[in-house]
Specification:
Strand content: 25-35%
Number of domains: 1
Radius of gyration: 17 Å
Shape: globular
Low-confidence stretches: none
Order of helices and strands: EEEHHEEEEEHHEEHHHE
Oligomer: single chain
Largest sheet: 6 strands, antiparallel
Number of helices: 7
């Protein structure tokens, strides 16, 4: 039995909330459940349009998919969203250059299937915190190539440059991850408005210190805002064995 809670917050510095979340504990098409976080980018209202439209497109594509394999279902849905975002971006001047990250997940028994484009993240948290997704960002590439260390990456001036996004090019490359979950695991999906404000270990401590899932999510948002709240914050928390 899944227990879930989601929240977005505009943060302390932004005029618009460009983060968008979607959760369904009930089946959508051939998937037993669906959870999505998107962090939009683009001037004026293009970023919030991109994140919302992408998520709505993905959900719609999942609903009508005849596929059974979640990797194929999620992958094709994200590809369609990318195509449509590119089209809209070309047709409407105000939406030109818009894009969004997306991380999507579905639970199948004790297994979690994850699809990711961009630098929004999915973690599994228990006695320790483990980032499952890999950021598609310039700084992450630099870490991987050995150019800078993980500690320097946190405050690097190019931290906001992402190397993959929905809408960035005509084709989109999606990363997929499969995770076997164990009792006591909490799944956290979030935008970088959370992870840029809090260290992973701070996130783990907050999640272990609150009683219920609602308090956990609210405490994460409060802590991110207390640390500066420089961006919109999106949090989806899931307790798979609640």
């Amino acid at each position: 039995m899944l227990k879930t809670f989601s929240i977005t917050d505009i943060g302390k510095k932004r005029k618009l909330n460009q983060d968008y979340v979607y959760t369904s504990e009930c089946p959508i098409g051939n998937l037993s459940n669906v959870f999505i976080v998107a962090d939009g980018m683009g001037g004026h209202n293009a970023g919030d349009y991109a994140s919302k439209y992408t998520v709505e497109t993905i959900v719609s594509e999942i609903e009508k998919s005849f596929e059974k394999n979640p990797v194929i279902i999620l992958g094709k849905a994200i590809e369609v969203a990318n195509t449509l975002i590119r089209q809209k971006s070309g047709e409407v001047a105000e939406l030109e250059g818009m894009g969004t990250t997306v991380v999507a997940a579905t639970f199948m028994g004790k297994y979690l299937q994850v699809a990711n484009v961009g630098d929004s993240r999915l973690y599994v948290v228990n006695e320790e915190i483990k980032q499952i997704t890999r950021d598609h960002s310039l700084v992450e590439e630099m870490v991987r190539m050995g150019g800078i260390d993980r500690a320097s990456a946190r405050n690097h001036p190019d931290k906001n440059i992402i190397t993959r996004a929905i809408g960035a090019s005509d084709t989109v490359e999606v990363d997929f991850f499969s995770v076997e979950l164990t009792p006591g695991d909490i799944v956290l999906m979030c935008s970088d408005g959370l992870t840029n404000m809090l260290e992973d270990e701070e996130i783990r401590m907050i999640l272990s210190g609150q009683r219920d899932i609602v308090e956990k999510a609210q405490a994460l948002v409060k802590a991110a805002n207390d640390n500066g709240g420089k961006d919109n914050i999106a949090v989806v928390l899931i307790e798979p064995f609640a």
